[in-house]
Amino acid sequence: MQQRLKPMELSLLRSILWNQFGAAIHMLTTCIQTIPDHYFDTHKRAYYIAYHCIIFLDYYSSFPPTGFSPQLSFTQQPTDLRPPESIDDLIPDKIYSKAELLNYINEIRSKCRLLISTITEERLHTRFTEGSESGDMDYPFLEIFLYNMRHTAHHVGQLNLLIRQDLNQHVEWSFREGDGI
Fold first, then answer.
1. Other beta carbons within 10 Å of 128
2. What is the per-residue pLDDT for 181?
3. Residue 40 and residue 38: Cα distance in Å, rounded?
């Protein structure tokens, strides 16, 4: 027999998950806000990192992922057709403005906050399943959120490094959602 979570435990889980996941999203937002408008024109690698991070932030927050349709469209390209600065096969259909990137993050933030704030025991057993082929992702709800947070933090770290190296600036650390906002 499976033991059920107490309401207080579920509330604590929601709070902790949003505090940390929201902080990761905040740091991504802050990185992009810190970058001058012209920087993406001359540093395409940074642009592709930011775009990739945003698209996957949305994708990994989509249940089920089979219905995923990004606000900022892309085309999957074979290796020989990808720009040299790209980091994967998802190539944006156009170069989106900083404002478009930030607006999209804001919408994803709201989506994630709603998903987390409405977690139930039943939802914790929901799976993020891409398909049935070898290599397809099949993770429980909580694990895909932790995976998503790690993925976002990884690319925020890359953007932070570029901001420090190229612009001699830094982005403040966000300890929890709401800190420094």
1. 21
2. 45
3. 6
- Smallest CA-to-CA distance from 118 within 25, 17, 2 is with 17
Structure tokens at 105: 């993050």
- pTM of the shown model: 0.93
Backbone phi and psi for residue 6, each to the nearest 5 degrees, phi listed first:
-75, 150
Model confidence over 107-118: pLDDT tens digits? 999 999 999 999
CATH superfamily, with its number, for domain 7-167 = dinb family like domain (1.20.120.450)
**DSSP labels for 32-71?**
HHHS-TTHHHH-HHHHHHHHHHHHHHHHTT-SSGGG---S
Q: What is the mean pLDDT of the chain?
A: 93
Region for 178 from its dihedrals, namely left if φ exceeds 0, alpha if ψ lies in -120 to 50, beta otherwise: left
Tell me the DSSP string of 61-98: T-SSGGG---SS-EEE--GGGS-TT-SSSEEESS---H
Report the pLDDT averaged over residues 173-178: 89
Residue 113 contacts residue 63 (beta carbons within 8 Å): no
